[in-house]
Amino acid sequence: xxxxxxxxxxxxxxxxxxxxxxxxxxxxxxxxxxxxxxxxxxxxxxxxxxxxxxxxxxxxxxxxxxxxxxxxxxxxxxxxxxxxxxxxxxxxxxxxxxxxxxxxxxxxxxxxxxxxxxxxxxxxxxxxxxxxxxxxxxxxxxxxxxxxxxxxxxxxxxxxxxxxxxxxxxxxxxxxxxxxxxxxxxxxxxxxxxxxxxxxxxxxxxxxxxxxxxxxxx
Length: 218
Prior knowledge:
3 domains, four-stranded mixed sheet, single chain, 15% strand, alpha/beta, 7 strands, 44% helix, three-stranded parallel sheet, Spore Coat Polysaccharide Biosynthesis Protein SpsA, Chain A
């Protein structure tokens, strides 16, 4: 999982236009904390790739023992993701799946499906409704999909899949899921969490906090 330190103004910047930088950073932290605990048994290794390097002690406080810490490389998002895969995809048998922190309710079975898909295809992608992706996975080699991409735009999915087609690389497409980037996404999250919290106490605190945040800003 890729993560940034949750300083106000450095994370969830699009959402911050609607709810303010401080509340956006608090929400980012909650997403990160929730995912770290919920995914603590997924995969053979769990790596939290963080930035900036100076905040390692804070990430060490947050990350459960099941997670390893690794500092992200320098550069834009594509360069950082490419460096991550270059480090961890070392042999034909390696299957590496990478997510961010923007999809706090991403179902655990989707992660399992991504790893399973990499037994049949060298790349797996999880699309988002806004033209991006919430998950990328690779096996055997680093896919040629991280350079010259217009990150944080609706062109990301189209450009990424074009690179794969041009390189003759097969990929598996997972079910669509959503990132929480805009105010409308936060409303969708509130409604989803309301349903989840009825059946599982795991979601109760996050559901309450999202409801309160929306009530303050609607």
